[in-house]
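Sample 3 of the quickstart, ligand 7TS:
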Amino acid sequence: MKTEAAERINVEKIREDFPILKRKVNGKPLVYFDNAATSQTPQQVIDCIVDYYQNYNANIHRGVHALSQEATEAYEKARITVQKHFNAKESKEIIFTSGTTHSINLVASGFEEFLSDSDEVLVSGLEHHSNIVPWQMLCEKTGAKLKVLPMTEQGDLNMSQFEVMLNENTKLVMVNHVSNALGTINPIEEIIQKAHEVGAKVLVDGAQATPHIKPDVQALDVDFYTCSAHKICGPTGIGMLYGKRDLLEALPPYQGGGEMIDQVSFEKTTYAGLPNKFEAGTPNICGGIAFGRALDYMNNIGFEKIQAYEQELLEYATDRLNEFENVIIYGTTTDKKTAVISFNFEGLHPYDVGTLADKMGIALRTGHHCAQPIMDFFKIPGTIRASFCFYNTKAEIDLMIEALQKANTMLL
Ligand code: 7TS
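Result:
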């Protein structure tokens, strides 16, 4: 029986858009549950990439010829698509980067000249390494102190600690909108508001939220927001940094080169305005255009429908996993989480379970998910992670459960 949400998003029709979902792995139909690592690409985005290279591949912003103008127009149009999607005030506030990691490093390196050893930088305990290491590097260079907002057994942030840790020395607060390892949706509205009360700027890593939630950066009043296109049906190697205009204008350029300058002489170079100041060199033009197409694709389905359907998948998978007596699920937040389940079986190593599941065509992620501090908190080497997308089905979850039953029988 089809559920309401499933009918509303028409999963069978959507699956037709994803050619890779038809392939087999180890002789079995592919069940792709590693969407938090990267999502699959619909034919519409693949066509957009092919169209670019077949018809108007050219470098942008520099040629008077037709191809260069067409490519420039499409790239800048994609920037406006991204701006509208995130509700940024101006398209200048959207910097195309190679992805979240690049976006965070750009901001962290820019703050080098604004921090000193009396300052504090607060990072949540639920972060991916890419929202930890750049801030550690910044603190090493500036002498600023790195503080960590602790997490709870349920996989939430300990918000009563947050207010205690904030003070007038706190210059930056970093948190992911959604945890990649546990799926927890963090209370970013409250974090942003309280951080602003002490004058701190807030960077929100949106890599895991953007596949499920449509953020409004103006309503959030967030200072910086990041995402990676490959997690939202786009290609790899492209993503974005949103920053409030005055902050982006105050930050120094990240890289020097072509495109990011106004005038160059050996005596003095002046820099271009936003967004070019942060886009040195030939950018990922095709990627930017395909990023825009991917957002159009997801918006055509609609984020409310996506969320409602994915919540059904999450609840169904959680119930089915709880049929196992030896299952341990990590991230049992009482508030909402996205369609990600991290779990282990008592007595089994996650890697062994993942390897056996792969033999049965089920793509699961095992390991520390680039979030070692979370694994250390739970005192485990890693977890098995199933992360769902709107093209997944309950029938696929049943196949995963069957594979996990077999793994349990074989390995226990
Ligand atoms: N932040 C979060 C919350 C992430 O989940 C990831 C990637 C990144 C940053 C880095 O994104 P990138 O596009 O720059 O690499 N997360 C994962 C994952 O969970 N499994 O593989 C990659």
